[in-house]
Amino acid sequence: MSRYDRLLELSTFSEEKLHVLQSKKVLLIGVGGVGQYVATSLVTNGIVHLSIVDFDQVELSNLNRQILLKEEDVGKKKVEVVQSELKKKNSALEVKAIEEKITKENVDRFVNNFDIVIDAVDNWETKLVLGESCAKHKIPFLHIGVDGNRGQYCLFEKKSLLDVFNPDIKKEPRDGVMGPMVGTIASMASVHLLKYLVGDSPSDTLYYFDSENSKFGYTKI
Amino acid sequence: MYLKVDSCLSNEYKEGMTIKDLLDYKKVEAVPWLVISVNGTFVPRAKFKEHVLNDGDVIELIYVRGGG
Question: For the whole prediction, is pTM greater than 0.90?
Answer without folding.
Answer: yes
